[in-house]
Amino acid sequence: MATRIAINGAAGRMGQRLVALGSQDKSLDIVACFEHAGHAKFGQDAGVVAGIGELGVPLQEETDAQYSAIIDFSVPAGAHAAVERAVNAKAALVMATTGLEEEHQAKIREAANVIPVVWAPSMSTTVNLTMKLCEIAAEALKDIPGGADVEVLERHHRFKEDSPSGTALRFGELIAAKMGITEFVHGREGRPGARPHNEIAYHAIRTGDNPGEHTIIFGLLGETIEMTVRASNRDCYATGALQAAKFAAGKPAGLYNMNDVLGL
Ligand SMILES: NC(=O)C1=CN([C@@H]2O[C@H](COP(=O)(O)OP(=O)(O)OC[C@H]3O[C@@H](n4cnc5c(N)ncnc54)[C@H](O)[C@@H]3O)[C@@H](O)[C@H]2O)C=CC1
Ligand SMILES: O=C(O)C1=N[C@H](C(=O)O)C[C@H](O)C1
Q1: Which of the two ends of the chain, N or C, has the fewest CB atoms closer than 10 A to its terminal CB?
Q2: What's the gap in Å between 129 CA and the centre of ligand 1?
Q3: How far away, in angstroms, is 139 Cα from ligand 2 center?
Q4: What does each C-alpha distance from 56 to 2, 31, 43 come to in angstroms?
Q5: For atom 14 of ligand 1, which residue has the closest CA?
Q6: Shared-domain flag, residues 114 and 174
């Protein structure tokens, strides 16, 4: 039987790709498409808005439909609403929105006591694989003579509201945990002085319509290793999120990540 899903933020850049790809997947049934009532296309058919023709599901704030998973790609307030919807519906939650304040993050952790939650800053297979590779590099380089300097560069479209990306922050956290790094900086200017080893720096570039790329640099004295992972469109995130919804629906309550979903 198909997994019945709801999409939160359904008229957004990601929401539209979820509607388009989810509607082609015979193992899924999109039964609700939530949007902010102030959206210019609120009330219109979600499939028409996504450019795939009539889906029979409007952009709405409420639904009577039953669903077993809800996927959220929206904004912090929308993510908060998605948590409440998931808990009330006893449905699984796939949380993809980034830039969440601590209060929103606490709500997600609390929800995971009663429902299954897949929470990840990137639903992409190659990004999650690169995270694993960076952990291997960090472990190998943590005690290298002369030290290894770690910097995380990310590039995204001009419309992105949060910086640095949630993915960049996760790369930094994972590497810091392996290397025992405790300081984080965001860009540099003036005369900050010689670079300390106990620091990871983030650099966020915002141009055009870039769907997302991350470069992680481990700079040694005499050689450098860089890992770059790059999306050419948003479908890598959408397919990962749809896979996460199928994975989580019906699972025991708890916090899961994309390694669980992808078996990494
Ligand atoms: N985890 C992942 O793999 C990925 C995460 N993201 C994150 O997803 C989020 C959304 O990204 P985009 O689709 O590019 O943004 P977007 O701005 O195109 O879409 C957000 C949508 O949420 C809607 N919205 C606002 N308030 C809402 C509410 N209260 N309830 C329901 N919907 C509401 C907006 O009207 C808009 O249509 C961002 O935080 C982004 O960083 C984006 C791509 C991949
Ligand atoms: O806003 C985006 O577009 C993206 N956001 C996510 C993030 O902040 O990490 C994931 C992806 O890089 C695209």
Answers
A1: N
A2: 23
A3: 26
A4: 17, 9, 11
A5: 13
A6: no
Structural domains in the chain (count): 2
Residue 75's closest CA among 123, 39, 51? 39
* pLDDT one-digit tens code per residue, 200-244: 999 999 999 999 999 999 999 999 999 999 999 999 999 999 999
For residues 66 and 109, membership in a common domain is answered with yes
CATH number for position 256: 3.40.50.720
Residue nearest to atom 1 of ligand 2 (CA): 160
Contact criterion met (CB below 8 Å) for 187 and 202: yes
* Strand partners of residue 59: 33
User: pTM for the complete prediction?
Assistant: 0.98
* 156 tagged catalytic: yes
* Mean pLDDT (whole number) for 12-31: 98
**Cβ burial, residue 187 (10 Å; 0-12/13-18/19+):** exposed
Q: What residues make up the domain containing 180? A: 125-230
User: How many residues can be counted in the chain?
Assistant: 264
The Cα–Cα gap between 125 and 232 comes to 13
How far is 216 from 130, CA to CA, in rounded Å? 9
